[in-house]
Amino acid sequence: MNVDVGFVTQLGMDPLEAVATAADRGYDYVEVMLDGAGARNSLAPRREDLRSALAERGIGCTVHLPFGSIDPGSPFDAVRSGAVAELEAHVDLAADLGATKATLHPTTDAWAPAHDDETVGDAIVESVRHLDAYAAGRGVEIVAENIPRGRFDTNRIGELLDRTDVSMCLDTGHARVDGRDDGGIAALIDERADRISHFHCNDVRGPDDEHLPIGAGFVDFERLFGALPDDWTGTLSAEVFTRDAAYLGHSRDRIEELLAAARSDRSDREGDE
């Protein structure tokens, strides 16, 4: 496997300081949250400083596109087109930063009793297709994330992958909320590894979306990484709810250890055959 490891910046985390943390803790890249202080209107005056910091420290970049108040699946045309236009502007910012990937929430806040499942799904698919092509033209890969209780959670994201060419970001904690145990997540990886380009790695102790440091919960990451094929190429972001550099460093170390263990287990199995 050819894997780069990064972490997602959290609200209240200065992007420039995040670059320094990534370099000091051995990360390959940072996934910059383009919301709050990282939203384009706030980050624009500092984009050259961020570009310079990334280049000087030899750190790569991906981004997490804004979500929540942005509704790319709205059944109302003007709302949906406005959301897509805002996401396009953030993709432009991502390209300016040299980002290789942009995580997208393929969701909607549409009032469920008023709008049928098919209509909502079609609207999301239309927006994802458009944004995927728009980003590709700027050298950025859109990765659609599984969102629990969303239209395309892990139990239904296969439909989105079948109807578009978009890559997938698999969030391990979100998958647990969907009711998948380690075996269920590993089965999804085995089935869709050719489309999974990016991971949000976070630990949980139960079915809640806790975003704990790697090793602080019960997710069997060695098993999940072991489900990836030998020739898999992609990115793994630690998405943990902390601004503490020590926890980020620990998560990076555990990811590397678990990747090595998964490779070793695979080698041992192949040697026994």
Mind sketching the topology for me?
Layout: E1 2-8, H1 15-24, E2 29-33, H2 40-43, H3 47-57, E3 60-64, H4 77-97, E4 101-104, H5 117-136, E5 141-145, H6 157-163, E6 167-171, H7 172-177, H8 182-192, E7 196-201, H9 221-226, E8 233-238, H10 245-272
Parallel strand pairs: 1-2, 1-8, 2-3, 3-4, 4-5, 5-6, 6-7, 7-8
GO molecular function: isomerase activity
Protein name: Sugar phosphate isomerase/epimerase
Keywords: Isomerase
What does this protein look like?
The longest helix is centred in the last third of the chain and has 28 residues, at 245-272. The relative contact order is 0.13. The protein is globular, with a radius of gyration of 18 Å. α1 runs parallel beside α3 (47-57) and α4 runs parallel beside α5. The protein has a single domain, classed as TIM Barrel, CATH 3.20.20.150. The chain has helices spanning 15-24, 40-43, 47-57, 77-97, 117-136, 157-163, 172-177, 182-192, 221-226, 245-272; strands at residues 2-8, 29-33, 60-64, 101-104, 141-145, 167-171, 196-201, 233-238. It is of the alpha/beta class and 273 residues long. Strands 1-2-3-4-5-6-7-8 form an 8-stranded parallel barrel, surrounded by 4 helices. The chain is built from 10 helices and 8 strands. The mean pLDDT is 95.
